[in-house]
Amino acid sequence: MAFEFTKENLQKFEETLKRYPQKRAALLPALWLVQEQQGWVSKESMEYLAKLLDLTPAFVYETATFYTMYNLKPIGRHHIQVCNSVCCSLRGSQETVATLKKKLEIEVGESTSDGRFHLSTVECLGSCGTAPMMQINDDYYEDLNEEKIDKILEKLK
Ligand code: FES
């Protein structure tokens, strides 16, 4: 399916370009903008960015696949990323993951069949003092336990 930025996102993209000495340097924020717009980074969107930034599609693809924060396939609306690094692990992130897997009936790396949630584990999110923690889309949820997880999931439509 063809991709192009919305009028508003094209404006954001052009504003972003002004911050960099070379067009290619804007690739990471441009990929992020694609992901904000459609929830993931498709092959067609990479080809679109390659044209906008005077890059080869292969260069855009190599960059997008190098970083774990870009979703290369459609995922659930609420992307749950549970920190799995040392502090969170010592404070029970394995239980957090197990609780989420049980409640959502999915494995890590999967989305729920209703398209509501996607579950990932990630490295340190910089909130070690409030471990165990997770990020859902742009928000942090900290000092997690099963009761808190229940309330968080209930609120997310
Ligand atoms: S170890 Fe989990 S936020 Fe740093």
> What does the oligomeric state look like here?
single chain
Strand arrangement within the widest β-sheet reads: 2-1-3-4
Global shape: elongated
| Ligand roster | FE2/S2 (inorganic) cluster
What is the CATH level 1 assignment of the largest domain?
A: Alpha Beta
The CATH topology of the largest domain corresponds to Glutaredoxin
- Kindly report how far apart the N and C termini lie: 27 Å
The major beta sheet can be summarized as: 4 strands, mixed
Order of helices and strands: HHHHEHHEEEH
Descriptive report:
With 157 residues, this protein is α+β, with helices and mostly antiparallel strands. The chain has 2 domains: 7-66, Arc Repressor Mutant, subunit A, CATH 1.10.10.1590; 78-155, Glutaredoxin (3-Layer(aba) Sandwich). The protein has 7 helices and 4 strands. It has helices spanning 7-17, 27-38, 43-53, 57-66, 86-90, 93-104, 146-155, and strands at residues 78-83, 117-122, 134-136, 139-141. The chain has a 4-stranded mixed beta sheet, covered by helices on one side. The chain is elongated and about 50 Å long. The model has no long low-confidence stretch (mean pLDDT 96).
